[in-house]
Amino acid sequence: MKNWVLRLFLAAVVAGGAFYGYRAWHPSAEQAIRKEFAALARTASFPQRESTLARFSRASKLVGFCTPDVQIVMDVPGHSGQTISGRDELLAAINGAQAMAVGLAVEFVDVGVEVAPDRQSAVVSLTVRGKVSGERDMIIQELRCELKCFKGEWQISRVETVKTLL
Amino acid sequence: MEESANGWRVWLRRVVIGRNPSRTLVRTMALMVVSVVVFHFVLLPIQVEGISMLPTYRDHGVHFVNRLAYVFHEPQRGDVIAIRYSGIHMMLMKRVVALPGERVAFHGGHLYINGKPLEEPYVKRCNWEFEAGEMKPDMYYVVGDNRSMPEADHTKGGAWRYRIVGKVIL
Lengths: 166, 170
Fold this sequence. Notes:
The structure holds two protein chains of two kinds. Chain A is α+β, with helices and mostly antiparallel strands.
């Protein structure tokens, strides 16, 4: 290989590394939100065998991802519409759901982030893929989430289900 | 003995990286670029999960979505299409049975479009009974081929044109 090709390759590697390092130390609002949702998916997933205490702790962690006045609007075909308002209602709903499900694996697919020009709010569209232990079919639901930034931390203020087919 | 080992090494090197390594590198890179372009922008590989398209498409079957199918014309009745959720990594695979402006209803398991029964050789009979109403402009009514499953468990409905990714082929 010619000398200048090697130099060019090394320069590209160094520039790429520097850019990656900069982005890792100074994440953009979009990156921070994506990281938040990745953490949310990890927290929402729970194994088949888990103590009740661990599940309660998991539920309170999940609530921490949301603003105190969070609103969750669910309108899924085949089920009656439901709205959850505030962290207390959400905590009760999560505990109820955890008691019914034996285990759950949650994944967020195709996460699209739109940050407002003032960088204080954002809208996230995503698809939830959930697999309940022992069940053959997966749960797939498209969601639209609104987020607010409090002291540099992004929190979910509203979640609503999206009807893919009308 | 040593000569024979050397011969093998040369042969193996030729098989793996060819006579001219730089040309092989260029070919490999060109192949990678073509593969990325084709399998991302033209033919999207998908794996079926679920039984809603039985017997036409089986669970876990691998197929391709032609993303250019509707560049020059609109979806046609009978096309099997891919409908995206929030992106193209999770999609619904359904058959178009009604076009924009048409009225859809199921009576006694038969599909009626604008009050006339539609012949569907690809489905088994069922007992579905409901009216989906009239499709809005830019909306296509889609349903799976497996009508033997309970109507409530079957994902179906009007799909906006902008959500249609392409036509399922192969």
